[in-house]
UniProtKB/TrEMBL annotation:
<dbReference type="InterPro" id="IPR036135">
    <property type="entry name" value="MoeA_linker/N_sf"/>
</dbReference>
<keyword id="KW-0460">Magnesium</keyword>
<comment type="pathway">
    <text>Cofactor biosynthesis; molybdopterin biosynthesis.</text>
</comment>
<keyword id="KW-0808">Transferase</keyword>
<keyword id="KW-0501">Molybdenum cofactor biosynthesis</keyword>
<dbReference type="GO" id="GO:0005829">
    <property type="term" value="C:cytosol"/>
</dbReference>
<dbReference type="Pfam" id="PF03454">
    <property type="entry name" value="MoeA_C"/>
</dbReference>
<dbReference type="Pfam" id="PF00994">
    <property type="entry name" value="MoCF_biosynth"/>
</dbReference>
<protein>
    <recommendedName>
        <fullName>Molybdopterin molybdenumtransferase</fullName>
        <ecNumber>2.10.1.1</ecNumber>
    </recommendedName>
</protein>
<dbReference type="InterPro" id="IPR038987">
    <property type="entry name" value="MoeA-like"/>
</dbReference>
<keyword id="KW-0479">Metal-binding</keyword>
<dbReference type="InterPro" id="IPR005110">
    <property type="entry name" value="MoeA_linker/N"/>
</dbReference>
<comment type="function">
    <text>Catalyzes the insertion of molybdate into adenylated molybdopterin with the concomitant release of AMP.</text>
</comment>
<dbReference type="InterPro" id="IPR001453">
    <property type="entry name" value="MoaB/Mog_dom"/>
</dbReference>
<dbReference type="GO" id="GO:0046872">
    <property type="term" value="F:metal ion binding"/>
</dbReference>
<dbReference type="GO" id="GO:0061599">
    <property type="term" value="F:molybdopterin molybdotransferase activity"/>
</dbReference>
<comment type="similarity">
    <text>Belongs to the MoeA family.</text>
</comment>
Length: 408
């Protein structure tokens, strides 16, 4: 296994990362609805009954049969089963959500009805039906959502409506982070040749937004800059993680030990360097673990913005694949200012979106060692190899993994 390689095209790197994840995805497991938020459907969600399951009144009023006036014979509330209406000129009082009795011909709203001295009901039904028929929303056995759908609050509510107590979802990938670099400080301000480790706080938080779990014990660093310490730390992390991310040491500097460590661990590269700037020395490898199965290692470059680009280029597609999710397609936005190309590399340029999300403006402070631009951007505009983008051009946009409201 050589550390030298031809950089992979950026789009191809995303696709390869996704396919590698998909090929390694585990089976679906049934979990209670309360624990399924944020997971991914492992099988299609199918209607267990017709929906609604019985003819259901949409109003409070009267269920009537035959011509007016109607003599009330009883009442049916939500949750009850209704006796059939058998005689013309009869009705039952009915509540919203109650089962409409067999034999009912119309429903009349209470405020659009009146009663005579004998208690008989009169009124004119509205032209549109005031009840919902079984199957109006779904037929029993109908597929409502495909496998691979992210589970959100609406999906949880729909599964409950259908009568599910548990739903089949994919396991959440377990991720770990190893930070390399003896120059890193874990607290206090930088100086005297030392820089503050910015990736231990950043990477786990974004891994979680991509659907992985990261326990506090799974974040380690700085790992000592020796080959032995790197190999030992990776081996240890592989015992409890499906995806181990490392930062730094991806190049061939005097203390860059990642490639030699991978060789020692018998790893096989899925991707070794990507033709993208910033970020190119990134890699994704399969590493055999002690149990005989393989896990993934994503090597993120040490420059912080480059590490983020490796996260969105390799790790996000891998995690999507492992969860059985599609690789998100990139939408296009209009550039408000020119963005230069980066020769034969894809250029990912940090940009902020207009409130309507249609136009992107490049932000400042975007060197690969900087995070200031990242903290004000919504994502990256994509400028393909051997091109440059002009103001007014439509270009693909890769969003940052943000929760709603995080960039108001
Ligand atoms: N001779 C060459 N040198 C470099 C090249 C090159 O093509 N030829 N490429 C540069 C590029 S591009 C990148 S990116 C970096 C990637 O290098 P490594 O992944 O080996 O990263 P390190 O050398 O360990 O660190 C680079 C830089 O980032 C700082 N760093 C590292 N970890 C953190 C962290 N957790 N928090 C904050 N900052 C971090 C580190 O101090 C260095 O300044 O290689 C270039 N060199
Ligand atoms: O690729 Mo480096 O990641 O340009 O900073």
């Amino acid at each position: 296994m050589s550390a030298d390689s031809i950089p992979v095209d950026w789009d191809k790197a995303r696709t390869n990362g996704h396919e590698a994840g998909r090929a390694a995805a585990g089976p679906a497991e049934a979990v209670p609805l309360a624990g399924a938020d944020g997971r991914t459907l492992g099988e299609p969600l199918v209607a267990l009954t017709d929906l609604p399951a019985f003819p259901t009144s949409s109003i409070d009023g009267w269920a009537v049969r035959g011509p007016a006036p109607w003599q009330p014979t009883g009442r049916v509330l939500a949750g009850g089963t209704a006796a059939p209406l058998t005689g013309d000129g009869t009705c039952v009082e009915i509540a919203t959500g109650a089962m409409v009795p067999e034999g009912a011909e119309a429903l009349i709203r209470v405020e659009e009805s009146s009663r005579d001295a004998e208690g008989r009901v009169t009124g004119t039904p509205r032209p549109q039906p005031e009840w919902r028929l079984p199957g109006d929303e779904a037929r029993r056995g109908e597929e409502l959502l495909p496998a691979g759908t992210p589970v959100d609050p609406a999906v949880l509510g729909m599964a409950a409506t259908c009568g599910y107590d548990r739903i089949p979802v994919r396991a959440q990938p377990r991720a770990a982070l190893l930070v390399f670099g003896d120059e890193l400080l874990t607290s206090g301000p930088p100086g005297a040749g030392r820089v503050r480790d910015s990736l231990s706080p950043l990477v786990p938080a974004w891994l979680r937004r991509y659907g992985a779990t990261v326990s506090p014990a799974a974040v380690r660093g700085p790992v000592q800059d020796t080959l032995e310490a790197h190999v030992a730390a990776i081996r240890e992390a592989l015992t409890s993680a499906d995806v181990v991310c490392t930062t730094g040491g991806t190049m061939n500097g005097p203390v860059d030990h990642l490639h030699p460590a991978l060789a020692e661990l018998g790893a096989e590269y899925v991707i070794n360097t990507v033709a993208v700037r910033p970020g190119f020395p990134m890699l994704l490898a399969r590493v055999p673990a002690a149990d005989g199965r393989y896990r993934f290692l994503a090597g993120l470059p040490g420059n912080p913005q480059s590490a983020v680009i490796a996260l969105i280029t390799l790790v996000a597609p891998l995690l999507a694949g492992l969860q059985g999710r599609e690789l998100p397609a990139l939408r296009k936005v209009e550039l408000t200012a020119p963005v230069p190309g980066r020769g034969g590399f894809t250029h990912l340029a940090l940009a902020a979106l207009d409130p309507d999300g249609r136009r992107a403006t490049p932000v400042g402070h975007v060197g690969s060692a900087m995070l200031r631009g990242l903290a004000t951007a919504d994502g990256f505009v994509v400028v393909r190899p051997d091109t440059a983008a002009a103001a007014g051009d439509l270009v693909p946009f890769h969003p940052l993994p943000l929760y709603p409201g995080e960039r108001p």
